[in-house]
Structure formats: C-alpha cells, structure tokens
From TrEMBL:
Gene3D superfamilies attached to this UniProt entry: 3.60.21.10
Organism encoding this protein: Ignisphaera aggregans
Annotated ranges, domain Calcineurin-like phosphoesterase: 3-206
Signal peptide, first to last residue: none
InterPro entries noted in UniProt: Calcineurin-like_PHP, Metallo-depent_PP-like, Metallophosphoesterase_sf
GO MF, one example: hydrolase activity
Name the UniProt record assigns to this protein: Metallophosphoesterase
Length: 237
C-alpha cells in the first residue's frame, strides 16, 4: 500500500494555522506517508519566504520516517511565473515540477509523476492583460501534459499533479459562471489510454465534491480551504 499525503492552497500565511493543525492530527494518529505532493498556491502572492514554515513542519513528518520521504510540488498562480528558480534555490528538498515529469521508486514500484500549473478553459481578465500570448501558453502546456502522460504509460503508477482543476466534476460548489476560469477538462478530453491512474489538483476553494472518478482515473481536489484538512490517498501498488 502506498500512502500519499497531499495538500494545496495553504496561501501561507493565511491558512497556516489550519495546515499546522492538520499536520498535528496526522502525527497523532501515526499516519504513514510514502510520498508528499503539494499542488500549488502554497504561499500568498509569491511571498517566497512564507514557504519556510510549511517546509519546517513537513520535515517533522518526513523525519519520523526512517526513509527520506520525497516531496514533489507544482507551482500555482500565487507562485508567480518567472520566479520558479527562486523556489528551487530556496527549497531544494522539494522536487518542483513545471511541465515536467519524474520517476520515483517507492516500495519496489516505479511511479511516474507529471507536474504542471495546469490549464484554464478561458484565461482570466488579469491573465489576458498581464501574460503575453496566454492562450498559446495554455495550448502548448496541454500538448506538453499529453506528451508526458504518454511517457508515464510505461510505469506501474501514473499521477498527474496540476494546480488548476483537471476536470469539471470537482468544480461543484463554485458558481457555474466562473468554472471556465478554474480549470480545464483534461481528464475528460484526453485519449483514454493517456489518462493517469490518479489526478491531483487544487485551486477550487469552494468545491463541495472533492473526489471524482472518470473511467479508471481517481481525481482528488486537495485544496485545504475546501476540505479543511490534508488529504491522504492510499493506493494499492
């Protein structure tokens, strides 16, 4: 059994108390963790230093384990484009994925993880004004995600991690008129043979349906404001 601990949208320092309480709960129940996945917007408005308390607390969970637990993360919209190198320099203990993939071996199983900010069906007004050629960026990103998922087909377990929602199903609870600006139906639209075993996303703070299954893909919205606790995903491998 593989135990994945995942969270997004801490918006540090805004939801740090809830994050700390959730970690404490996991430690009290001796929750096992084999892999930690952070799905973006861990800090508020690119306040890079505010990642420090998150890493400090996660290290307490990591250090309980005799084997170093991998921490994999993607960037959200609050970790601004162009600053990725700063996060990597300041927090090298985290494997940051930016339209990239990695292979991690856990319990004799090779796990392929694709990480990306994700795609929006429609760019926000702010993005249109401030990010040049944003439509092309999303189109190219979707193509890249498909290419990486194709690579992952060769491995025991495939996981897609995005900040933006990867399905419309987990948008329930948000006003329908803003669904376009919260994600893209990646899981619905891609070829069935490319679909990952697990899709993890954040961004949807008001979701009332945080878990969905499309064909064989299990989808988890791990947004802390939506769930009020850290998500634990148990996978048979």
């Amino acid at each position: 059994m593989l135990h994945i601990v995942s969270v997004s949208d801490v918006h540090s320092p805004r939801y740090l108390p809830l994050f700390f309480a959730s970690i404490t709960t996991l430690r009290l129940v001796n929750q096992k963790a084999d892999l930690i996945i952070l799905a973006g917007d861990m800090v508020e408005k690119n306040s890079i230093d505010n990642m420090k308390p998150i890493i400090s607390v996660l290290n307490k969970l990591v250090n309980k384990n005799p084997r170093r637990i991998p921490i994999v993360a993607v960037f959200g919209n609050e970790e601004y484009i162009g600053f990725e190198h700063r996060y990597r320099e300041m927090y090298p203990e985290v494997l940051w994925l930016d339209d990239e993939y990695t292979i991690i071996e856990i319990k004799d199983a090779e796990i392929c993880i694709v990480g990306s900010r994700g795609v929006l069906e429609r760019p926000t007004t702010w993005q249109k004004k401030n990010i040049p050629c944003i439509e092309n960026l999303y189109s190219n990103r979707l193509r890249k995600i498909k290419e990486l998922l194709n690579i992952c087909r060769e491995y025991r377990l495939s996981i897609l991690v995005t900040h933006y929602a990867s399905t419309s199903v987990t948008l329930q609870g948000e006003p329908p008129q803003i669904h376009y600006f919260l994600g893209y139906k990646i899981i619905e639209y891609i070829d069935s043979d490319l679909r990952p075993d697990i899709s993890i996303h954040g961004h949807v703070h008001n979701s009332t349906k945080t878990y969905a299954m499309i064909n064989t893909t299990k989808i988890f919205n791990v947004s802390l404001p939506a769930i009020k606790h850290i998500t634990v995903i148990d996978v048979n491998i």
